[in-house]
Structures are given as C-alpha cells and as structure tokens.
Write a structure and sequence with these properties.
There is one protein chain. With about 600 residues, this protein is mostly helical. It is built from 21 helices and three strands. Strands 1-2-3 form a three-stranded antiparallel sheet, with no helix packed on it. α7 (about 120-155) packs across α13, α7 (about 120-155) packs across α15 and α16 runs antiparallel to α17 (about 435-455). The radius of gyration is 24 Å and the shape is globular.
Length: about 600
C-alpha cells in the first residue's frame, strides 16, 4: 500500500513550524531594538533551570536520533541501548568538574577558555576546526531527515530543506539564545509526544509488550548484553560504556551550544542542575528512540518493508511506520512527521547560535575592538542570517556531494575527541602548556584519521540479525521473497554512527571482508576514547618535556575545582577563586604574574 500525507497533515506541519518562528518573533519584539550581545548570546544569564534542561536535551537529540537510532535498533537489535548506562555517571562528572570552570569565568564561548589557559594559536585553531565541522553538521541535520521524509512520505525535498533552514535561520537570527531555548522546549515536547505515540499505538497493535518481546527474541534481537572483550564487536558492554562515556563527556563539556546554555542560567548551582537534568533528558529521548525501533521491528517482524521493496533505505522506517500506523487518522501523521522537523530545528538552531557566538567573540571583536554593543549585536544577527543560508546551501549540495560530506562529517567527528582532550589537559594537568595542547590535538586527530582510512581500506562486515518477509502477501511485495538474502551492514560505516552513519547507510548484501589489521576493524564506539586519550597523554608528555625546570604558574580559576584546591595547597598559590570579577581583561588570566586587587 502506498502512503502519503493529506492536506491537513501539511497544515499541521506548517503550524508547528509557524510556532517556532512565532517564538523567535516574540523574543525579538520583547528585547526591542537595543538588545545587548549578552542578552543575545546568554539571555542576560536569567534563564531558568527547566527551559535550559529541555533545550540541552533537544539540542543534541537531532533528527538523526529521531530517525536514525530507531533504524539502528530495527536492524541490529537493542544492544546499542547499553549506552544508556553512561547517562548515570557522565552528567555528574560534567556538572561537578566542568560546568563550574566555564560559569565562573563568565565566558560567552568555550574557546575563550583556550585563550586564557594556553594562547590564541590554540584558541583559533580549535575555533576554525570546530566551525568547519559544525557547518557541515548543520547541512547534514537538514538534508538527511529531509531525504528520508521525501522518500518515505512523498514530502518534497526542497520543501523540507527550505522550511527547516529558513525558519530556523529566521528565529535564531532575530531572537538569540532565548528564542533558541524556548523553541527547543516546544520541539523537545514534540519529539517526546511523537515517539510516545508511535510506541503506544504500535505496542497496542502487536498485542502488548510481551508479544513484542517474543517477536524480538524470535527474530534474533533478544540478546541485551554482549560481554565479549573483542574490540571489533559492534555493540558490546565495553564498547558502549567506555566509548559512550567519552562521547557524552565531550558532548557535555566541550560543545559550544551546551556550555552557552549552562552560562545562561542565573547561578552556578542552577547551571549544574540544568546540565545534569539536560544530559538525563538526552538519555530519556534516546530511550524512547530505542523503544520506537524495537516496536517497529515487532510490528514488521515477518514482513520487513525494506526487504520487500517498500522502502529503499533503513532510515525510512520511522516515517513509513508513522504513515502505516496513523493512515486513518487525519492530521496525526503530520503531527508525528512534524516531530522530525522539530528535531532538525533544535539541532540547527543550537549550532548556528554557537557558531555566531564563536565568530563574534573570537574574530569580530578582535578585528573591531571599539565596536559598540548595539552595532555588535546587529553584526552578529547579520552573521547568523548569512551562516544559516550557507547551511541551507550545504544541505542542497549534499545530494550531489553525499560521499564527500559523509567523509568530511566523519573526520569532523574525529576532531571532537581531541578537542575535548585539550580541555581535559587545561583543567586537570597544571603543567599543560600550549605546545602540549597543539601536539596532543595533532596526535589525536592523526590516530583517528589513520583508523578511519584503514577501516575504509579493510572494511569489516558482521552479520546483522535476519529480516523476514515470510508474512508478506506476494501482491504487496516489489521484491520476491525468493530473492531475499540475509542482510548485513558494514561494521565500520562511519566514525560516529549517531551523527550520520545510522541514517545514511543503504542496506547491502553481505560481501567478503578484506583481511587487515584488527585496529582498523575496531568498533566506531571506541573512537572518542581513543582520540581523547591520545591527546591527553601526548599533550601531557610534551608539556612536561617543554616546561622541564621552568613550570608555568597557572591561575587556579582555569583548573577544575578539585585540582585547583590541591594545586593551591601544593604551590601556596595566593589567588582567590571567588575574585574573578576583579579581573579587567583576558590578559590578566594569560599572565598569572598580574594579580587581581582584592
């Protein structure tokens, strides 16, 4: 049966997009013509815990999660969900060890910290790398779900790209962080409602949770835990916990959009609570995505729409599932599909606002230091609009340069681990210096790049659990059941499946793997741990060698609170942690010999 959206569904989708735009208009009008840069980027540090927490959860849980995680679970089973264990300890680590440093320094961007702790060479190198990656990421989070929706629900691809891109650019440019946060609240609720409706309706149609689990076990998807220490196993307890811990630590502690939200809170305590609740919220949304994938598999366990030819890509399973479940309920499919649009909006708006903050603080202010705050606010709004148009252009180019963008996205994801490693060096290793930071960054990126290239040269395949078409009526199949072969997916599809791999890999028959070093067959989940650890270890070694006999005196404000306390005791350093407000400029932090006047 062919599915499609009705006129009412389109009106519902447009209505959800209009709400997001309306929130931006509201905050732009409320702020007036004299909106300051602090209000634009940090909401005058008057944002509450609840909206910031919702915004944090919606920011990271993009349409790639809304569509891609269920597809991953549908194809491979629920072991990916072991990563939820990381949501127990990583929020506490971020809240206790990282949030206080950024909040007390009162920075607008996390890159300002690098200039304070190391030097501007490190700072601008990281800014350039991260901004390049984030532009590509914005293009991907617009294009990828738009493509899936266009194929599964017959939604025009240009309509999807332009509606998400232009509306997001509009409300982010005029409303600033307040508009971004409050639209994130609406969008997070939309995602939760959409996922919840699919789970409840799908479970009811298959006959309950017990029947759904029986079908999962029968289909080879009942194995919840793999204890094998083999690093080439795609999803084991060790790869999901170790790799997931590092991935969520660098997400919570070194992503501009998230730290910007921490610093928009009224107090440090509220920032810590918001970071903890936000990271927990990410886990809840991901749990719903996992449950959606399992529900979809149980629904199609004996008539897989991919194998039967009703779909051409695994990432279409969610929109296809929505239209199948709710085809007789006018307007409901539009509400569910709108959740995917909202997921794209939340991620793009966060990244766009973060890029503008970085370019504004690190380049515009440096080039025009005497620019008034009013003119600076107008400048960054114009930059936000221009950068949004660039992201839209990249989304359209993705259809022509798909393979290039997937490779560039993977390389960009490999950068996140080493960048996080630089922050770890700065906050946890008092002897760390700029030479060590640059050396660690280069080493971390290099080892990740080598692993990625090797994985492409020696692709490894592992059998996915089988998919069945035994229950399909032959009249409804475009691919005869006799032509069905067991489906497998590449072990090393991309470096960060959550970002792009889950949603972009077509399903292909099993091909023989070319024998190569085991290092290249390593599960992609270990990559954040590998690159971060490499950066920290190499960076620390270089720092100790280059500072031997001449250790640098570091301002304790730039160290995580626990390390700062021991550092002060060991060095008799007389800085007062509470007196940051006495600093007049970044130069005083870069030169520890300039003491504040207390």
């Amino acid at each position: 049966m062919a599915f499609g959206l009705t006129v009412l569904d389109y009106f519902v989708i447009l209505g959800m997009l209009a709400i997001s735009a309306g929130i931006g208009i509201f905050f732009a009008v409320k702020a007036g013509r004299r909106q300051s840069s602090k209000d634009y980027f940090l909401g005058n540090q008057q944002m509450g815990v609840i909206p910031v927490s919702f915004s944090l959860a919606a920011t990271v849980m993009s349409a790639v999660t809304y569509l891609g995680t269920p597809a991953e679970i549908y194809m491979h089973g629920p072991r990916y969900g072991l990563g939820l264990i990381c949501r127990i300890h990583t929020p506490l680590i971020v809240a206790i060890l990282f949030v206080p440093v950024f909040y007390r320094l009162k920075v607008t961007t996390i890159y300002e910290y690098l200039g304070m702790r190391f030097n501007n060479t490190v700072r601008y190198t990281v800014v350039a790398i991260k901004c390049l990656f984030e532009f590509i990421y914005m293009g991907i989070v617009i294009y990828t779900p738009a493509l899936a929706l266009s194929l599964a629900a017959n939604i025009s691809l240009p309509f999807s790209i332009l509606s998400v891109g232009l509306i997001c650019t509009f409300y982010t440019s005029i409303g600033g962080i307040k508009a971004v946060i409050w639209t994130d609240v609406f969008q997070a609720l939309s995602m939760v409602v959409g996922a919840g409706a699919m789970i409840i309706a799908g479970t009811a149609k298959i006959g309950g949770v017990a029947e759904g689990w029986r079908r999962a076990v029968e289909g080879g998807r009942g194995d919840l835990m793999e204890l094998s220490p083999d690093p080439t196993v795609r999803f084991s307890l060790w790869s999901t916990v170790i790799g997931g811990t590092f991935a969520w630590l660098y997400t919570g502690a070194s992503i501009q959009g998230l730290v910007q939200r921490y610093n928009s809170c009224r107090t440090e305590r509220e920032a810590q609570i918001a970071s903890w609740l936000g990271l927990i919220g990410m886990g809840i949304i991901e749990m719903l995505a996992i449950a959606t994938g399992m529900t979809a598999y149980a629904y199609y366990y004996d008539c897989d729409p991919l194998t039967s030819g009703k779909m051409s890509r695994s990432d279409q399973i969610v929109p296809y599932f929505i239209l199948d479940l709710f085809q007789s309920y006018r307007g409901v499919p539009g509400l569910m599909i709108g959740g995917a649009f909202c997921a794209s909006l939340s991620s793009m708006s966060s990244v766009l606002n973060g890029i503008v903050a970085a370019v504004g603080q690190d380049f515009v202010k440096r080039m025009w230091p005497n620019l008034s705050d009013f003119r600076y606010a107008l400048t960054v709004k114009a930059l936000s609009f221009a950068f949004g148009l660039v992201a839209i252009a990249l989304a359209f180019l993705a259809s022509v340069l798909g393979d290039v963008l997937k490779t560039a996205s993977s390389i960009g994801a490999m950068v996140c681990g080493p960048v996080f490693g630089i922050y770890v060096l700065g906050m946890f290793v008092p002897r760390a210096n700029s030479e060590g930071a640059m050396g660690g960054l280069i080493a971390g990126v290099t080892i990740g790049l080598v692993q990625y290239i090797g994985a492409q040269m020696y692709p490894s395949t592992r059998d996915a659990p089988p998919l069945s078409v035994d229950g399909c009526l032959l009249d409804n199949m475009t691919t005869p059941a006799a032509m069905y072969t067991e489906v497998t997916t590449p072990q090393q599809s991309t470096m960060y499946d959550q970002l792009i791999g889950n949603i972009s890999n077509p399903i292909s028959p099993e091909i023989p793997a070319t024998e190569g070093p085991a290092f290249f067959a390593m599960s992609y989940l270990y990559l954040p741990a590998l690159t971060t650890t490499t950066c920290v270890v190499i960076g620390a070694i270089i720092s100790y060698i280059t500072s031997w006999g001449n250790p640098r005196n570091v301002d304790p404000r730039l160290l995580t609170p626990i390390v700062a306390r021991y550092y002060r005791d060991a060095t008799n350093n007389d800085y007062e942690l509470e007196s940051y407000e006495k600093y007049d400029s970044v130069k005083q932090l870069q030169n520890p010999d300039i003491k504040d006047e207390v």
